[in-house]
Specification:
It is a single chain. It is built from three helices and 16 strands. It is of the alpha+beta class and 223 residues long. It has one domain: Jelly Rolls, CATH 2.60.120.1440.
């Protein structure tokens, strides 16, 4: 039994680092030409970003987010929150090129590619108006009507933007749903990969402590 416990503890030492690396799921790479802030701080030309991170470009600066199967270009004077399969656009311009259904959300509007094939589209949010232009394949604008939901009427509607077309919609279709703490832009700390990784380590240590044998008294004179 003692040998078995030692084997389990040794396996944990090997497995836990791999689990920590696995916490990087959803990670993307941010490329900038300067003048870009990540979570409220200046960012170098290349940086890893994770779900819930905020990216803000200043005037005359741009940035690009690369994630497996998608590239999102963030034009100047734009503020976004990054998610694994969705970008929340607070204001500004996004250019999306995706083969994995990357969505863009602006308040109660969500722009969704209608195919998993390469889709290229722009989303521009200025002065309360959202312009969606489709260049490669079609996209759908899904609108969630908060006021309609309260009155038990139809709570959502969809419109298709065909390739080569553009559609303008108002973003003010109900109570404004903005991410919390835009200015702090740090995201929930318990959702960060390092926080989840720390939890895994803690569980592993406690399990090993419970399974590993007691080394016994230091001196043989003590019972």
């Amino acid at each position: 039994m003692a040998e078995w416990r030692k084997l389990v503890c040794g396996a944990m030492v090997v497995v836990l680092p791999a689990l920590l690396i696995a916490q990087d799921f959803g990670r993307a790479t941010l490329h900038t030409d300067g003048g870009t802030w990540l979570n409220g701080k200046p960012v170098p030309n290349t940086s890893a970003i994770f779900p819930h991170d905020f990216v803000q470009t200043q005037k005359e600066s741009t940035a690009k987010v690369d994630i497996d199967g998608s590239t999102v270009t963030i034009q100047s004077d734009t503020l976004v929150q990054f998610e694994e399969d969705e970008i929340f656009l607070d204001h500004g311009t996004l250019q999306v090129n995706s083969a994995r259904g990357m969505r863009v959300r602006v308040n109660c509007l969500t722009v969704v590619p209608l195919t998993q094939e390469w889709t290229r589209y722009d989303v521009i949010d200025t002065d309360g108006k959202v312009l969606v232009a489709a260049y490669e394949n079609d996209v759908k604008i899904h609108t969630r009507h908060v006021a309609a939901q309260r009155s038990k009427d139809r709570g959502s509607s969809d419109v298709t933007v065909h390739r080569g077309e553009q559609v303008i919609r108002s973003e003010r279709c109900g109570a404004r749903a903005k991410p919390a703490q835009m200015l702090d832009a740090k995201g929930p700390i318990l959702n960060s990969p390092w926080a989840r990784g720390t939890g895994i380590v803690a569980i592993g240590v406690l399990t090993c402590w419970a399974l590993c044998p007691d080394p016994g008294p230091v001196s043989p004179d003590k019972p």
